[in-house]
Structure formats: structure tokens, C-alpha cells
């Protein structure tokens, strides 16, 4: 018996070489990193992010994976975080030990740990919802075909009742067993979001936010830490732009995947930020002063 297309696709995915091993080994091999392309990506993420994700499509066509195989972006971003946090520590810190602790928390907690958690949540949500939509589409086709078969053999009220009963039975089966069955369509290779691609999307989205909240805010901090309405207004605007742009780039990153739909879900937090920001301004909340006091007293 010849294997189906789906079994070939699954077998190929199982036999594919692991991505994390080469990715992690290249972190310590600076000469193998494409630094020029990394800086090109960083500039265009701030100016024209759609161009970056258009190149992601080309990467999928040539490398057969959505995620980067070059850790240069992560390495350079971490170096930028170290330099920027060191500048804050030099301006507002008290001791070398406090600076080392702050830099460590920013790199490993704010960037890496938060990125791993967010990437994992997005990866789980997108793959689970994609599997449910595929199952639901197959069930709808099955229901329609079975009802048409009944209509060809029977007629009248008996067909209607049988069709409704079959509809109920198959939908109950879907609700109770949607994750315990094999892919029903034997001619379609299952497509899933790669975890490393989800982490790439976080890194891409994080960089413009880093530019706004670490670089621009640093130079404006003498004005932003002052008391009054205008510093609070300007500080809130910086955070609104940074957070909104982060979620917009999240949307672009997942919207480029052709097997996903309803990716506008990633734009919803922008609405929440826009709704809450006037309230924060009216009560005089200054996020710059809050975070600087949190880290530097």
C-alpha cells in the first residue's frame, strides 16, 4: 500500500534535522552571522516592517522554514540592551553590583523570559486554533455529504430528522475528540507555527519598542521625570506608541503565514491601550518616573 501525501509530510517533518542545535551553536560563531542583513532588518522594522516579512516569505521558499536560522538578530539585540541599560545605570544607578543586577534582569527577565513565555503562548494558541478550524471544516464537509446521501435515498421528514441527528452526533464527537484523532484530510500536509518563528516575531516586535523606550526615552528622561501634566502626557504617548507598535508587528508577523486566519486578534490590545491611556494621563500617572523609581529608587 502506497503512503499518502500526509504521511509523507509527517515523516519528512520527523526526519528533518533539529533547528535548535545549529541555531544555538551559531551563537558563539560570530563569523557565521549575517550582521549586515540583521541591521537591514532592524532599520526596516522601524520604517517599513512589511518589507521584512516579505523577505520572510522568500526565506520560507529557500530554506523551507519560517524561522531564522541565524541568531545574529538576538545576539545584537541583547548587546544593544546591555549598552542601553548600562547608560541608564550610569545616569541613575548607585553601584556596580546594582548595575549588574539591573542589566541581568533586563536581558534575562524582560527580553528572554518574557519572549519565551509570549512566544509559547502564541505558538500554543495558534496551533490549537488552527487544528480546531481544520477539524471543524472537515466535519462540515462530512455532515453535508452524509445528509446529501440520505436525501438521495430517503425523502420528507425522515431525512430532516436523520440529518439533524447526524449533525448533533458528529458535532459532539468533534467537541470531545478534536485533539485525539489523526489529520482527516490525507492529501494535505499539516502546517504548524514554528516555535522559533514565534520567538522571532517577538524579537522583531521588541526592537522598535526598545528604540522608543530605551533609547528615545533615555535622551528625553530629564524632561519626562519632571512633575506636571506635560511630562506625564509625553511619557504616556511614548509608551502608547511603543506598545501599539509592538502588537502591530505581532499582527504582521503572524498575518504573513498563509495557513492562519483571524490574525486581527493580535491588534485587540492596541484598542485597550488607547482606551486606558487617557485615564492614565488624567490621573497624572507617569510611566517613565514609575519604572525609573522601580529600578533606581
Could you explain how this protein is built, in words?
- With 297 residues, the chain is mainly alpha-helical.
- The protein has one domain.
- It has eleven helices and no strands.
- It has helices spanning 5-15, 20-25, 35-47, 49-63, 72-92, 96-153, 157-177, 195-224, 229-255, 268-282, 287-296.
- Residues 1-17, 135-139 and 168-189 have low confidence and may be disordered.
Domains (count):
1
| Cα shape | globular
Radius of gyration: 25 Å
Count of alpha and pi helical runs: 11
Q: What structural class do helix, strand and pairing data support?
A: mainly alpha
Number of strands: 0
How is the biggest beta sheet arranged? none
β-strand amount: under 5%
Poorly predicted ranges (pLDDT <50, ≥5 residues)? 1-17, 135-139, 168-189
Name the helicity range: over 70%
Distance N terminus to C terminus? 71 Å
Q: What is the ordering of alpha helices and beta strands? A: HHHHHHHHHHH
Average pLDDT: 81
- Oligomeric grouping of the chains: single chain
Compact overview of the structure:
This protein has eleven helices and no strands.
Question: Topology, please?
Answer:
Layout (H helix, E strand, L loop, with lengths): L4 H11 L4 H6 L9 H13 L1 H15 L8 H21 L3 H58 L3 H21 L17 H30 L4 H27 L12 H15 L4 H10 L1
Helix pairs in contact: 3-4, 5-6, 5-8, 6-7, 6-8, 8-9, 9-10
Amino acid at each position: 500500500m502506497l503512503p499518502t501525501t500526509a504521511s509523507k509530510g509527517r515523516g519528512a517533518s520527523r526526519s528533518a534535522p533539529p533547528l535548535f542545535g545549529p541555531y544555538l551553536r551559531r551563537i558563539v560563531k560570530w563569523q557565521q552571522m549575517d550582521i549586515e542583513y540583521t541591521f537591514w532588518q532592524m532599520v526596516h522594522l522601524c520604517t517599513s516592517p512589511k518589507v521584512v516579512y516579505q523577505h520572510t516569505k522568500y526565506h520560507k521558499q529557500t530554506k523551507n522554514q519560517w524561522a531564522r536560522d541565524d541568531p545574529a538578530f538576538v545576539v545584537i539585540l541583547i548587546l544593544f540592551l546591555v549598552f542601553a541599560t548600562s547608560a541608564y545605570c550610569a545616569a541613575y544607578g548607585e553601584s556596580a553590583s546594582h548595575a549588574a543586577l539591573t542589566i541581568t534582569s533586563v536581558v534575562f527577565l524582560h527580553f528572554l523570559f518574557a519572549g519565551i513565555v509570549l512566544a509559547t503562548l502564541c505558538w500554543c494558541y495558534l496551533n490549537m486554533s488552527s487544528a480546531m478550524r481544520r477539524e471543524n471544516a472537515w466535519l462540515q464537509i462530512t455532515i453535508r455529504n452524509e445528509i446529501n446521501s440520505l436525501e438521495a435515498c430517503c425523502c420528507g421528514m425522515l431525512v430532516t430528522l436523520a440529518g439533524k441527528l447526524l449533525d448533533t452526533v458528529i458535532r459532539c464527537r468533534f467537541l470531545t475528540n478534536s485533539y485525539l484523532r489523526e489529520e482527516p484530510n490525507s492529501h494535505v500536509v499539516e502546517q504548524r507555527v514554528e516555535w522559533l518563528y514565534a520567538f522571532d516575531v517577538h524579537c522583531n516586535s521588541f526592537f522598535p519598542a526598545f528604540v522608543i523606550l530605551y533609547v528615545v526615552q533615555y535622551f528625553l528622561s530629564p524632561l519626562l521625570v519632571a512633575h506636571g501634566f506635560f511630562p506625564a502626557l509625553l511619557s504616556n504617548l511614548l509608551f502608547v506608541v511603543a506598545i501599539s507598535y509592538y502588537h502591530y508587528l505581532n499582527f504582521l508577523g503572524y498575518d504573513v503565514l498563509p495557513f492562519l486566519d483571524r490574525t486581527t486578534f493580535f491588534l485587540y490590545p492596541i484598542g485597550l491601550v488607547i482606551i486606558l491611556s487617557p485615564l492614565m494621563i488624567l490621573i497624572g500617572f507617569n510611566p517613565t518616573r514609575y519604572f525609573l523609581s522601580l529600578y533606581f529608587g
